[in-house]
Amino acid sequence: MTQPDTAALKLRITEIFASLQGESTRVGLPTVFVRLTGCPLRCSWCDTEYAFQGGESRSLADVCAAVAALGIRHVCVTGGEPLAQKSCLALLAALCDGGFSVSLETSGALDIAGVDPRVSRIMDLKAPGSGEVSRNRWENLAHLTAHDEIKIVLADEADYAWAKAQIALHALADRCTVLLSPVQGRLDPTTLAEWIVRDRLPVRFQLQLHKILWNDARGR
């Protein structure tokens, strides 16, 4: 069977830019962000609604060349929901083949099984306050390894109680690093930090470093 020419594959790209990683255990590392266009979810606290539509159709080869031109080893493929585009899997593999250290930010609503195992999957679990808790694909948990991370964004105390229950029920901290984040302007970060310490949760607290440095500036 003739293999497809992956270099000719197309992706719809909202932006490609260099910044510091603002989340995950890679926080603070200079990183190239590849933001794919489109997302089937509508989380109440979403801060990248501009990536829901529009964008520019670019070849996989062009995207890889644009990343390489920025001269940074770490690459984060994000969105939107990058896995909503079929060519995302080929992009992730191509970036790994290019020698980059690659992470994927994904909502957890789509199947992650086909993601190249060299990629660090930063997968959300959607708490009730997101409005999309029903979209969690719980089957994804079985695919996670210590190389991956789970991120839960919390809007209030009810979300925290939900997260605490899921961490215990699914032994999430035994699978991989678990990250808890407050929704900016809705849950006081100090309050969340105090809950975590009080309950001795086996998680990592995180704030969005890019928002502290650049507020909500696009492309940072």
Automatic annotation (TrEMBL):
Substrate binds at residues 20-22, 35, 78. It holds the Pfam family Radical_SAM. It catalyses: 6-carboxy-5,6,7,8-tetrahydropterin + H(+) = 7-carboxy-7-carbaguanine + NH4(+). Its EC number is 4.3.99.3. Mg(2+) binds at residue 48. Binds 1 [4Fe-4S] cluster. The cluster is coordinated with 3 cysteines and an exchangeable S-adenosyl-L-methionine. Binds 1 S-adenosyl-L-methionine per subunit. Belongs to the radical SAM superfamily. 7-carboxy-7-deazaguanine synthase family. Catalyzes the complex heterocyclic radical-mediated conversion of 6-carboxy-5,6,7,8-tetrahydropterin (CPH4) to 7-carboxy-7-deazaguanine (CDG), a step common to the biosynthetic pathways of all 7-deazapurine-containing compounds. This is 7-carboxy-7-deazaguanine synthase. It comes from Aromatoleum toluvorans.
